[in-house]
Amino acid sequence: MNKKKIRDYLRVVVSIVLSVLYVPHIIGYLLDFHVRGEINEDVRINKSLIKVKLPAIIALLCLLHTNAYFRSLFYYRIGPVKSLLISWWRPGCKSFLLSNNMKMKGGCLVEHPFATVLNAKSIGQNFICRNNTTLGYGRGGRPIVGNDVNLGVNVVIIGGIRIGNNVTVGAGSVVVKDVPDNCVVAGNPARVIRYLNKE
Fold first, then answer.
1. Are residues 11 and 65 in the same domain?
2. Is residue 63 domain-shared with residue 111, that is, in the same domain?
3. Is 91 within a domain?
4. How many CB atoms lie within 10 A of CB 42?
5. pLDDT exceeds cutoff 70 at 129
6. CB atoms < 10 A from the CB of 148, how many?
7. Do 77 and 136 sit in the same domain of this protein?
8. Is the whole-model pTM more than 0.85?
9. DSSP 8-class letter at 152
């Protein structure tokens, strides 16, 4: 057994032992039918960060205990009022900010999104972001991001633009114009460098 698996087994055990810390979180999760599906999708995709196969509820506990970024995402999902009541108990990451008036579908994978601000108008399913990413207001409003979008490190997307479905944005890119479906964009300003096979 490798060291990462041993570490993850220990994290799971500690998360279960300390599960009493997350009773308010689990109650909020179980009682809010509107966001439970989105949280389930977030757990499904973030389970890839844990090298141990786990049932969904145990994976949720483990992610809440070991990942401050995931806690920030969880607090965004349950809304500002509930998060205000319980986030003081186990805070999320203060440098990972999600706008409360943004609509984001489930399946968000947050890979070390330190110093990241997500203030889009909407974000589709299976969104992946990394550190130093900014989605924000600019000329014409806020961006609309499609499904299956993967952002590299230090990406800036601003303005009332549309990012299509199945798009990868390279590290360090600045996107200020619409991006079509099924492509890879990179650069400052970003441009299409490759189209992807739709299949």
1. yes
2. no
3. no
4. 26
5. yes
6. 17
7. no
8. yes
9. -
DSSP 170: -
pLDDT, tens digit, 9 for 90 and up, residues 163-182: 999 999 999 999 999 999 99
8 and 80 co-located in one domain: yes
Structural domain span for residue 51: 3-86
Same domain, 47 and 112: no
Distance CA 59, CA 176 (A): 37
Q: Is 64 helix (H, G, I), strand (E, B) or coil?
A: helix
From 62, 86, 110, the end of a domain falls on 86
With beta carbons less than 8 A apart as the criterion, state whether 29 and 71 touch: no
- Chain centroid to CA 48: 13
Round to whole Å and give the CA distance between 166 and 17. Answer: 40
**Single-letter amino acid, residue 16:** I
Q: Is residue 79 located within the same domain as residue 60? A: yes
Q: Where are the beta strands (DSSP E) in 8-115?
A: 96-98, 103-104, 109-110
Instruction: Give me the torsion for CA of 34, 36, 41, 47, rounded to 10°.
Output: 160
Encoded tokens for 184? 């890879």
Q: Mean of the pLDDT values across residues 19-46?
A: 93
Total number of domains constituting the chain = 2
Is residue 100 within 8 A of residue 81, CB to CB? The reply is: no
> Going edge to edge, which strands form the sheet with 167-169?
109-110, 128-129, 149-151, 167-169, 183-187, 190-195
